[in-house]
Design a protein that fits this description.
alpha+beta, 21% helix, two-stranded antiparallel ribbon, 27% strand, 113 residues, 2 helices
């Protein structure tokens, strides 16, 4: 059998649409994964349940998807913030931090409006 040389070991890259797209693993411990906040948005008519992230540049929060408008609570497209456009500024949100981050974001956006 011939192996596809485009596929990288450990599934760090995956084939999509005939090309290789980077798909890096979240480097979190099992303990952190137990306590990460999950998205409650709707993705393709079902609950999303992806990890939530916050942008350290602007405070925007939401899940990360590979395409735009995939989830109702999407805040990032891959690693790019959909609010400020910053790249590599997303940090996972833990369950105990979520309410505080959500309130801070809403307060900031109310003062802008």
């Amino acid at each position: 059998m011939s192996k596809d040389k485009r596929v990288i070991p450990n599934y760090q890259h995956w084939i999509r649409g005939g090309k290789i797209d980077p798909k890096k693993h979240i480097e979190m411990t099992q303990e952190e994964l137990k306590h990460v906040a999950l998205c409650k948005g709707i993705k393709d008519t079902h609950p999303c349940k992806n990890p939530l992230y916050v942008c350290t540049a602007c405070g925007n929060y939401g899940c990360s998807q590979e395409t735009l408008d995939k989830c109702t609570e999407q805040g990032f497209k891959n690693d790019k913030c959909l609010h400020c456009g910053s790249v590599a500024t997303r940090v996972p949100i833990m369950q105990e931090e979520f309410d505080e981050i959500m309130k801070a974001w809403e307060n900031e956006n109310q003062t802008e409006a």
